Amino acid sequence: MSDSDIAVAAYTINLANVTAEPVFHPTGGTYSSEQSVVLSCATSGAVIRYTTDGSTPNSSSPIYSDPIKVASTTTIKAYATASGMNDSAVVSATYTINKDDIYPAWTPNIAYKAGDIVSYNGKNYKCIQAHTSLAGWEPSNVPALWQLQ
């Protein structure tokens, strides 16, 4: 038996032909107020597609054009695509909005003045008439005293 010929092959993987991943501004995290999220991509002419319901974006997902308003806890997922290039990886950022953290919790037997804002059962309420709170006068029960924000 004789030896067989040796076969040699060279492969080139061109990672430079991949669209850059979208970047989130501000980055995901916990915030005490609504956020306006800007998406950007370092690849010139790239189109960013995204979702705000936690699902994976695809070619039918909305095209990013304006800042995304995030008023409650939301996960944004996005990818970028450019002509003649491979799509970027899907990236995500979660924004946790804790508005209640900035207002004191409603409490009975407290003197409230018009304009005071309190949190109650995950919602914020503004006092519209000065009063001393009593059990049963919770903000959600007395619209004459409290306005949902």
Report on the architecture of this protein.
There is one protein chain. This protein is an all-beta fold. It folds into 2 domains: 17-97, Immunoglobulin-like (Sandwich), CATH 2.60.40; 100-148, Seminal Fluid Protein  PDC-109 (Domain B), CATH 2.10.10.20. It has no helices and 12 strands. The protein has strands spanning 23-25, 29-31, 35-40, 47-51, 68-70, 74-81, 91-97, 111-112, 117-120, 123-127, 131-132, 146-148. The strands form 4 sheets. It has a 4-stranded mixed beta sheet, with no helix packed on it. A 3-stranded antiparallel beta sheet has the order 1-3-5, with no helix packed on it. The radius of gyration is 26 Å and the shape is elongated.
CATH architecture verdict of the largest domain? Sandwich
Order of helices and strands: EEEEEEEEEEEE
Helices and strands: which structural class? Answer: mainly beta
The biggest beta sheet is recorded as: 4 strands, mixed
Radius of gyration over C-alpha positions, nearest whole angstrom: 26 Å
- Reading off the top of the CATH hierarchy, the class of the largest domain is best stated as Mainly Beta
